[in-house]
Amino acid sequence: MKISHRLVSQSKSVSAVLLFGGLVYLIVHWLQSWLLPIWIDLPVLEGLKTTYRGRLIWITFYQIIFDVFLNPYFYLPVIGIFYLELIIPAKKEQKVFSVGMLQDFIWFIADIVFFTIVISPYILWIRFICDQYLGFLKIDALTNLTYPLPLIIAIFASDFLIWLSHLVRHKVKYLWYFHSVHHSQTELNLFTDLRFHTIDTLIAITTAIIPLQLLQIATPTTIYYLFIQKWYLRLYHANIKSNYGFLKYLLVTPQSHRVHHSFEAKHCDKNFGTIFSIWDYLFKTQYKQYNEYPDTGINEPRFPLEKSSKLPSLLKTYWLQFIYPFQSIVGK
């Protein structure tokens, strides 16, 4: 009977994973068809189409966004990460389809819209600024190195600057208001990496993109790197119990990042890494207890946490969370 019960339970889990993966596929497919005409007609992109160089940039981003980022097949890893949450959860009592996860799913949908309409044109603008006004800062020496060495150097440079930016967003009060939206999640899950305020995302993207541009890494490579980075963030934000063994000394893990999200005083200002944990070891911000899986969230009672799984409530809470940093800045 126990074996039969276990098989039924596993069967239900696999079915839930496949159904949820199918739902993500359908939503992304719908967003792809809906956002395509909007993106093509964005006024900020019109100027790019008037020059040969601009058309090349525009075509590159068009292909990357709609053939990769908004390609439904790109989201297949959701199924694998989701299944890991089922078989090795850090918090066994946490429901797979928790209220927190459903709220983060709203942020996931919003992220696709904002990335297409706001973030992508912003990345184009950064590249334009680097080309037109920061050319004197570009490092030509890397262009003579054998590929992929320039990319490896650029990734480490970018990752260090993101680490530094992450630390600053914890230390500067007004920046923390925006970053606290991400830290508010009390039920870490595979969509928590998308609970990022747009302002917070713009700061992080700027930090990541500028060194890649100044080191003259090709735009498609830059975008693919960002996508891989986003997927890795999704893995270690999930409710997964793992510290990667010896790899924890190189990479950020689900365990180490859960510590970063903890509200306990002993975990404060620890584990700022994005991909690599080496910066935390170098600058002594690594928390070295590797088997702790603390509760998460923020010590801010005014923050509008999600309380209901009903769609109207989730949408209202999304809006309240979005405006929370602005209200905090003006003192309301």
Cα shape: globular
- Helix/strand-derived category reads mainly alpha
Give a quick account of the main beta sheet: strands, pairing sense, barrel closure.
Answer: none
The helicity comes to 55-70%
Q: What number of structural domains do the residues give?
A: 1
Rg estimate, integer Å: 21 Å
Distance between the termini: 58 Å
Strand content: under 5%
The helix/strand order is HHHHHHHHHHHH
Number of helices: 12
Uncertain residue segments: 1-8
The overall pLDDT, averaged over residues, is 80
Number of beta-strand segments: 0
Describe this structure in words.
The chain is mostly helical and 332 residues long. It has one domain (96-330). The chain is built from twelve helices and no strands. The chain has helices at 2-40, 43-46, 52-69, 77-87, 99-133, 149-171, 173-183, 198-214, 219-237, 254-260, 278-282, 311-330. Helix 3 packs parallel to helix 9 (219-237). It is globular, with a radius of gyration of 21 Å. The N and C termini lie far apart (58 Å). The model is unreliable at 1-8 (pLDDT under 50).
Task: Please give a quick description of this structure.
This protein has helices at 2-40, 43-46, 52-69, 77-87, 99-133, 149-171, 173-183, 198-214, 219-237, 254-260, 278-282, 311-330. By secondary structure, it is mostly helical. The chain has one domain.
Give the arrangement of secondary structure elements.
Elements (H helix, E strand, L loop, with lengths): L1 H39 L2 H4 L5 H18 L7 H11 L11 H35 L15 H23 L1 H11 L14 H17 L4 H19 L16 H7 L17 H5 L28 H20 L2
